[in-house]
Amino acid sequence: MTVAKVWKLLRQPVGRPTPENFICVEEQLPPCDDGDVITEAEYLSVDPYMRYKIRQIPLNSTMVGSQVARVTESKNPQWPVGSLMVHYQGWRTHTHLSSKFLQTKDNNVSPLPDMGNLPKSLGIGVIGMPGITAYFGFLEICQPKAGETVLVNGAAGAVGSIVVQIAKMKGCKVIAFAGSDEKVAWVKELGADYAFNYKTTNIGEALSQAAPENINCYFDNVGGQFSAEVLPHLADLCRVSVCGAISTYNDDSKDIGAVSLTSPFSEATLIWKQLRVEGFLCYRWNDRWTEGLKQLQHWVLEGKIKYKETVFHGFDKMPSAFIGLFDGENIGKAVVKL
Amino acid sequence: MTVAKVWKLLRQPVGRPTPENFICVEEQLPPCDDGDVITEAEYLSVDPYMRYKIRQIPLNSTMVGSQVARVTESKNPQWPVGSLMVHYQGWRTHTHLSSKFLQTKDNNVSPLPDMGNLPKSLGIGVIGMPGITAYFGFLEICQPKAGETVLVNGAAGAVGSIVVQIAKMKGCKVIAFAGSDEKVAWVKELGADYAFNYKTTNIGEALSQAAPENINCYFDNVGGQFSAEVLPHLADLCRVSVCGAISTYNDDSKDIGAVSLTSPFSEATLIWKQLRVEGFLCYRWNDRWTEGLKQLQHWVLEGKIKYKETVFHGFDKMPSAFIGLFDGENIGKAVVKL
Q1: Average pLDDT of A292-316?
Q2: Which residues contact A41 (CB under 8 A, 6 or more apart)?
Q3: Separation between Cα atoms, residue B163 and residue A185, nearest integer Å
Q4: By CB neighbour count within 10 A (0-12 exposed, 13-18 middle, 19+ buried), where does A119 fall?
Q5: Which of A64, A225, A261 has the highest number of chain B CBs within 10 A, making it the mutation to test binding with B?
Q6: DSSP B303
Q7: pTM for the structure as a whole
Q8: Which chain B residues are Cβ-neighbours of A244 within 8 angstroms?
Q9: CA distance A228 to A232
Q10: Which domains does chain A possess?
Q11: What is the interface pTM, i.e. ipTM, of the complex?
């Protein structure tokens, strides 16, 4: 009989999440019956989007999220003991996946791609959801052309760091913003033509100097005031890919569907600059997921995409790893290793 | 020697424009030399976009805008006396068009399409810029599919009334908002499935009832608080065509490129509903202008597009016709007849 440790949502955060919002409990898993599988987490993901997911789930729900897991018990020939998968069963050490669930379409269970000598954790990073987010969210929504100027913020993060490198591969000029001098130095290593620490830089002045020609593609992970300051520097017909808005996630007045006039994308600028602003969730490209992963893995193996990970050790670190995202603690992808 | 009356911008409006912002002066036109043409205005256009243009032109400039004009003197065989054109030389009774200007690409001078029995004023209306704005701005940006639900505001205006009818032709369900009961009645005649007077209706409640399935295409002429209230009712992957934002035009804090957080398109909703919000200017489709005009004229002649005009009489009415746009005085296209 397997006992799982599970992080549950105890209280709705008000503003920035705190450790008191979460509670770790033990759960006895059902037996592994015909067609079932039991897995053990090896790497768990923490991602900014979870801040919104919290608002959508009831109290005492398991915290949502993905993990790289190893099959430890199996009565399912598709998933022999020892095989590795990525699943989205949330913040838990052990997971019972029923025969019925495993047969469900869109269960978001997939084999971990063969990583060769690469770390398995990349399955929840550059060769996983964040990689897919960067790949399709940038290429499909921004439609960058060689010679265009691309702006990326959160550029040392899991997604932003990949966008910087894809944009350079596509022949673009890249202007990047990140939240520390160490991050800025890394983003320059990744090939950004200009990189700035947004905490010590006047965004408008930096853009005036680095991009007097104005921005053709803006890949936005930050939102809010950052975007407001960027808007005057967008070129006519600029494409804005709204991937995230981490600067606003702890502001409960900016919830999904809130009736408010507190956003940066002013109609006057949208109209006169003919901007296209598009939000997305990576699951839009579920049918092209494998194509994306293959391309990303290929680029990683060729050395064209570099990555960093900030690894937290131990399941007890889940809340602090998550909360740290809002303080910019991570460089590259934040993962928790068990 | 021809003397033109010309309306100039005397003072920048603060908020809603007033008659004191404009001054009418007389201007002696240059002689009609080889290749030149002199025209006399028959119909002049007033459009909401002019409120923004005012901010971009120096004081004492001629007010911008289009007109249907007749050639009264000509030393240019392409434009014989009596021929009709649409040009954009602004609020003026008579215009000298030099040989050099007439040879310039993108001078926005075009022959008035052959209107048959239709009023010539349609050349600045449904078979002109507002028609083109509706045609391409709706079809190209919203990409409506049969069976989808379309929301149009300003639906009794020059552009909105055409969008309502194109959307019905494309097999969509149409929900329309306008600013008086008379306008609402007309919009229903045009085929809108639901039409509401926004001044006496709770927008959110109306949409909950009329579109429980949520909105797939939102053609926005109004912006601001109206859009904020619409946002919770947009469907996943909704396309928003931002044509205008008349509710905000007199608010100088919402100028083009202003660094402010006062807009309705919240990032949380953009992301989680995967919305695409695009602003446009109709000149984007300059190379397809004739195609658009032909289709619009065809629809008008077939009776598939109906129109109304609010006609003001006399050149002295230019400022009041323009100012009236912000009070919703016009039903259909506002024009000034000379």
Answers
A1: 97
A2: A67, A68, A69, A92, A93, A94, A95, A315, A338
A3: 51
A4: middle
A5: A261
A6: T
A7: 0.97
A8: 267, 271
A9: 8
A10: 3-125+308-337 (3.90.180.10), 129-284 (3.40.50.720)
A11: 0.96
